[in-house]
Fold this protein.
Amino acid sequence: MPHMKFYSNIFLFTLLFALTGQTMAQESIKQYLSGKGKDDGILWDFKVSEGMKAGEWTKIPVPSNWELQGFGKYNYGFNKEADKGKEIGSYKHRFSVDRTWKNKQINLVFEGVMTDATVKVNGKAVGPIHQGAFYTFSYDISKHIQWGKQNLLEVEVAKHSANKSVNAAEREGDFWVFGGIFRPVFLEILPQNHIKRLSVDAKADGSLRLKVQSKGSADEVALTLYDAQGKKFGKTIRKSASGSETWLEGNFEKPALWSSEFPNLYRAEVTLYSKGKEVHRINQKIGFRTVEVRQRDGVYINGQKIKFKGVNRHSFHPESGRTTSKQLSVHDVLLMKEMNMNAVRMAHYPPDTHFLEVCDSLGLYVMNELGGWHGHYDTPTGKKLLKEMIEVSENNPSIIFWANGNEGGHNAELDSTFFEQDIQKRPLIYPWAVYGGFETTHYREYNYGIGTYDHGHNIVMPTEFLHGMYDGGHGAGIEDYWKAMWANPLSAGGFLWDFQDQGIVRTDKNGILDTDGNRGADGIVGPYYQREGSFYTIKEVWSPIFFEKREMTAVFNGAFTIENRYAFTNTSDCTFSYELRKLDGSTESNKTGAIAAPSIAPYAKGTLQVDLPADWFSYDALYISAKDVYGKELFTWSFPITLPAKVAETKKKRDGTKVEAQETGDAFVVKANGIQYTFNKKDGLLAEVKNGKGIIPFHNGPVLQEAVNNYKSFTMRQVADTVIIESKFDKKESYNTLQWSIYPSGQLKMHVQYFPESYFTRFVGVNFDLPEEEMQGVEYMGMGPYRVWKNRMKGNRFGVWEKAYNDVATGEVPFEYPEFKGYHANMYWTKFKLKSQSFSVFTDREDVFLRLFTPKEQQDTDWKNMEPTFPTGDISFMNGISAIGTKTQKPETTGPMGMKHVYYDFEKEPIRALHMQLYFDFSGK
């Protein structure tokens, strides 16, 4: 019996193997000759003609860009002709094939080669040279295979194309130019009778059309759908095959629809039969969704009008160039969705297929773009490459637009090919042009843009706006733009430029990160995804849950007015929670709680009712978090409860020694509780502070900014236990006034009353000197941790923050964020940590900005719009701060928040003056 059981098992195993083999024989087989991405490359023999390591045969991983592997020459698309990389790379690789494939069709497939590829197998050319870097192409090499021995694959790659139009479209643009076999290479093994191409059109109403193009003999085609759980969905559709092209049509009842919010996918299993026998089967993920452009109205997905919150994305990694990976695609899409984006534009060429698959599965609307910058492919080349692009991406439900090049790189002769090749007839976009009912002009000034919104007739959807060079753009201006876009029915949103700083590792320059000066420093995140402040501004502004402005007062009943800016999600599918926090360093008394999610339909307003505990007003801050249906944070909003005046009272110290004061020929000298102050007698400025540890290098202030420093006629007097030094008000000569109060505790109070010098001002406040080399860091209470601009106030959180000193420039090495220098909003108090000792400043006034030094100017830029003017001095306390511009716009053209402050009262009446009141504690505690 044991022997019988053994042979029985052998029989079952053999049968299972046979059945499995039969199944495998019916499906396409892939055998990779390369790695699948940047991290698992397979070594091929390699030689490059010019530049680094020229002329020597060695090894290189495939896929890769050869520059990043230490070969050839780096060059940017704007390089002069003499500097353009014109290397030729020679590849050799030996591979074996399975003898069982002898009666199969064997295709050699390249997913991307930069740029001209000449391919040989066993010494013979397998087809014409392929020109065009970002496209999947293949050769049938069945007749070139040597069975029973290794086969030699040789590929000659010319980085610079022999086709001028290919160079114009791909290699003369505003991005890095690379060479090499940069995407995977594999063998595709097919039965002689097989499906060549599958085109699917699945609509939101459940209707489905399927075009099957086949090779060889077949008499029947069948389609079966399976849902995400693997369960069969609807009935199998069968139809007799009609030559090389067969259409299937069917209707499926109530399919789960695909959208960026709910990316529901089905698996379409398509089977080809010949004489009742299955000869080939392929599986394709699809999504049911309808894309509709309603002229003079908008873009509708599944019947809902959509505002696109998009960004432009290059295929990029600093260590591998254009060679990426599935893992990177997942990472990038998740990061975009973390910013509450719902769309991405491919810049300026088709991406890896796995990026589109990730957009399908995680949910992003995609604009897929035929290569082109300011130049375009000639018509014969363009038609070939366009067909290759559509063949590999036509069934991705995430793709809802095609783009015909970029910024003048449009070839109108290709328009008809888009519609001929795509059975879904997706909308075609001309970025930076008026076409097809869309106005997509790039980098529109806010005022011009709003005029077009209000008076134009096309759907407005800029395919690039708010250029993010360095720290300009992106978050700076987006609140104004989005407010206008959201309010206008003709706006379909837009796409920011761009996602990631293009900082590339220079293997020829000791591994430095190079953005080619200012050209590649356009990202919301750094080369290694370091998050700039704009990341969080975008996250808040583009949150699908929008909070109306709300002040915390004692009579507040916990009711927040919110707006649901989702297209398909009810707020009842989200989760909300709150936290009450005291910002004194302890966490024991903090309180948290869940908030019942209200039922608010998409695009409607409603109330979020927070059931706050009875003592909620005794806390310092309220935080409210919202999470989406998948548990991902949309944003956490902070609401200050305690105001600066209350916090200041806890920091004021009255008790101490008697205040001693004396007047010299040029100064007032005051001592209290071990601290000595010296004030300039003429202008009243703080000249020196000294305590038991020595001189504190904080002095020469308050110097007024954008106002006349005309403090005059200072006197010193004592009121009770306090010494007061103050200037005299005169409406003509000394209308700006300064008062110092020195208390027995040694604390110093400053009150400045002043009038801005002109009608329009960039910033207003008071300045002090503090040597930068003394600074180690700060701890402060206010909005943080990122700096702000007048036109980028969103994205931070109210709390207590610690920041170590750094001297980084946004978009440059070392890409260290948050930046230390700049403006910080809603300061309550700050502790300055110096090398020698520390001191503190606090205020009882609201809306005070803390300015920490002047950020250094970025290198290699002629674009000054994003280099805002800063106050004089080193440390400032401001009533108003400056905005920042973009590469193409001055701050004031990014919207109202970017404009200068307006102060129009020239009467110089004290009641109408601006005020700055600060308290200083130089005790060193």
User: Anything to note?
Assistant: The first strand starts at residue 29 and ends at 32. The chain has six domains: 29-190, 194-286, 308-541, 545-640, 651-758, 764-907.
